[in-house]
Design brief:
The protein is of the alpha/beta class and 210 residues long. The protein is built from ten helices and nine strands. A four-stranded parallel beta sheet has the order 3-2-1-9. The chain has a three-stranded parallel beta sheet with strand order 6-7-8.
Length: 210
Amino acid sequence: MFEKYISTPIIPVVVVETEEEIRNIAELCLEFLPSIELTMRTEYGYKALEILAKDYPNLQRAAATVLNTEQVDRILDLGTDIIISPGFQPVMLEYAKKKNYNYIPGVATPSEIEQCLAYGYKYLKFFHAGLYGGVEWIKNVASVYKHTGVKFMPLGGVKLADVKDYLQQPLVFACGGSWLCPRNLLQEKNWKEIRNRFEEASKLIKELSK
């Protein structure tokens, strides 16, 4: 599942609070973008993971905004073994090695990159991309580490207009798509607009693959 997950160029990043939301988003992911990053900012996020594991086993899924090992244990028990953090703590890097799950820690500085590399983690989340320099950060800072095999997933302030520039960078394996189904559109139940955003993202991926 991890190899398929990291090969999805645009990964929907979602915060859900109801069954209707997670099921509708899962269907859109299966149709257009076959991976999902589900943030653990609400208690319902754990129920949503359970639904994905049971009813959408072909959808590559990750649990995000994971900040401690207690959350990790709960997530692993629900059948999800791709875990993402906005930053990282050494204890989280060590725990991932101990428990042997797929971990994508978040970084924004060279020192953080090097700590993750020292633990053997080469797929990293670049967060908050909008605040820390965006594509220019990728070009001017991350390129120093190209020889290590490190790859980045920018998230935070990333918009559809930015995605092409990001995905053309050799060190970017995917972009996090929080703009695809933001809370305001979910609360409005504006599924037409959300679907349009998924379609636009899918079209861009097809264009870039030509």
